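SAMPLE LOG
Freezer: B-3
Tube label: C17
Construct: single chain, 264 aa
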Amino acid sequence: MRHEKNISMKNGALVRLIDVHKVYHTGEMEVPAVRGVSLEIKRGEFVALMGASGSGKSTLMNILGCLDRPTSGHYLLDEADVSGLDRDQLADIRNRKIGFVFQNFNLLPRTSARENAELPLIYSAQRLSNTQLRERADRVLNSVGLGGREDHHPSQLSGGQQQRVAIARALINEPEMLLADEPTGNLDSRTSVEIMAIFQQLNERGITIVMVTHEQDIAAYARRNVIMRDGMILDDRAVSQRADATAQLKASLAAGALAKEATL
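STRUCTURE (predicted):
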């Protein structure tokens, strides 16, 4: 394994999967969900993980997020083999290195945006004062465009704003990797572009992003598309004509302004 670590260090890989298999047992049946996947993701990449339902992409995402362990094979995260870690060790890795964004936001309904964003720090090994917690939460909320809405509860926020709170929560521990599972699945098309603009800005700052999506137009905002089928990688390619979410939003605003002038 020392050899694998040296390879990982030389090429800047944050994630390295080596012949990873995941088999689930249903009664006496074995159901292979991931079958011999080898994959490398360098620091600062933005990867869209695609595939139909049952392709294995969600299982692979769970392994990448240390929510599940491979049945066989190795998973090197930040140069360390995490394949055989126990549940508590995996939880520690998740808290320190990985941020999660989900399709359904998963916010606590009776708490403010600030309190939702603070949650990972409450369970962190970092011991911050209430003032430090508040300052960091407000900073990440402001970074995703929610300055002034820190005290709003989820019911007082739109779907896009709720997803921004979820992104702030994922960023509060300053993770090395952001994992997003269908982050635009419950959003309209314009709000989806706004969320993709945030993701692209985060990626420009150096945050590694792995995003599960089944939508080709959303995958076009990533730098690389990995397509799965039947538990294996079918295709792995760079995005040749990458969509620019910020440019699209500016063009939309300009078009709206012109249309408004035309009606005056």
